[in-house]
Amino acid sequence: MKFESKKITLLILLFSVGFLYSQKNQSKLTPPLDIPLALSGTFGEIRSSHFHAGLDIKTGGKQGLKVRSVLDGKVSRIRVALSGYGKALYVDHPNGTTSVYAHLKSFSPKIESYIKKAQYEKKSYVIEKFPKNELLVLKGEIIGFSGNTGGSTGPHLHFEIRDTKKQIPFNPMIFNIDVIDTKKPVIQKLFLFHENNFGEEVINQKIDIEKVKDGLYKAPNIYISGKIGIGLQMYDNQDLSQFNRNGIYSIKIFLNNKLITHYNYNSIKFDDSEYVNLLIDYKEFKTKKVRVQKLFYPNNSNISFIEKEEKNGKFLIEEDKSYDLLIEISDFKKNTSKIEMKIIGRKTNFIDPTIEGELILPENEYLLKFKNQTVHFKKNTFFYPTFLNVYKDSDSIKINPDITLFKKSYSIEFISKDYDSISKRQSFIARLNKKNKIDYLPTKFIDSVFKTKSIHAGTYFLAKDSTPPTIKPINFIKNQWLSNSKFLKIKIEDDLSGIKSYKGEINGKWVLFEYEPKKKNLTYDFNDIKFKSGKQDLNIKVTDNVGNESVFKTSFYRKYD
Fold this sequence. Notes:
Helices cover 9% and strands 42% of the residues. The chain is mainly beta. The protein has 4 domains: 2-30 and 55-170, Glucose Permease (Domain IIA), CATH 2.70.70.10; 186-345, no CATH class; 358-464, Chondroitinase Ac, Chain A, domain 3 (Sandwich), CATH 2.60.220; 470-558, Sandwich (Immunoglobulin-like). The termini are far apart.
């Protein structure tokens, strides 16, 4: 009955999506790009902090490709940010879905004009607007141009389809997004999990597998007993994305020809991302950068796309019994790879590795005090009971091991009564990163106490940034004529705490400089405002995260038509 309920749930989801999709007689989406669609990221694949909510469509390393609305609709949201989705556009459609286009270089002229007007009114590059019915678009209409803004690591288009009311992302492939795919998923290694004394699923065996032929793998006989779960190191790619390692779509496990677990990525909820690192072996990822995906429902999680059953995808192996196990991994086009194996029940004693440190119980609250520092773990900071070392080392606080998985952030405080007012302003709590460089953490200062929050283990200490940002012109020099230039470009950098804000003026009037943090560039479009021809006075002020300011003043000449 439980597996029948799974099928019914899936049918309801597919029916709902199909119903929404059939409205207004629009049987197929217009592709968001004019080029053949190649994917660098698939729906639902596991990222470092979230499940991927859309498709990442490759643009051949280029920016400026035409981005089209996939259906008739109205622009419901425009967001310009320095991180995350960067320049992003949201279009509501009559069928009850919203399409999302992110990391754009720019918007179409009518949308660009709308948002730029709002930016000048607010005097801010970073902005978010929710148009009503001002910006209607047609299916296939150009609404923007692909880019690399926000948290993108390279030029591409991030594309989503969501339920408009519930804001639940659907797999865009459901809506007949055409991606050429004849390639079967690749399975690299098999892992067995058991539950430790705290109920956490941990790896107890790593098993090399043999590729028999394309799509078929075999594992050696496995000797084990007790309640176990399966994990795989695996990836998928498509015909036009042969060198990408994307996520899979569907997982099935059969034990003695009986389906015991099945989940796929038709839809996710944004709240699922709270548990994304429970669906992998976090220790393996932190120590070896290997993502081992669990093929079962992790304890202490609440993942919407995996049905929470009594077995949770785990199964019991009894001593002196033999079991045939079949695992099927598929992509959306139903290209499938299989692993066949035999499990023989044999008495097994699992010995979990010993970890030094104090046992931290999730249900308790801990306030650890040192001479001038405190670390505060509130209740439910951790998913499981955790052994943790928290200690003072010189002027630093060290929290390890670095494989510790936190459920939510904890607070760190440093007390310093000897700082003068300038030193207080310029100081912050820092974390030492993997390259042994300082990472700035947003820090509050109240009554001689520096406070911050973190969701990572590591080394924390007070750092000071007394150096103001640097400001340098890129495409001009002082008193140069710039009548033939389309843009004014400035480079701004800060070597420690990072850029917090900037302001640009020409002839005493605020002008919109677009900021690209990856390139550290400010860019002004001369078409924005037509000043009186002749000498133009430029004033740029940049402030870092601890309040150090730099001001750059210069002049140039320009003739306006």
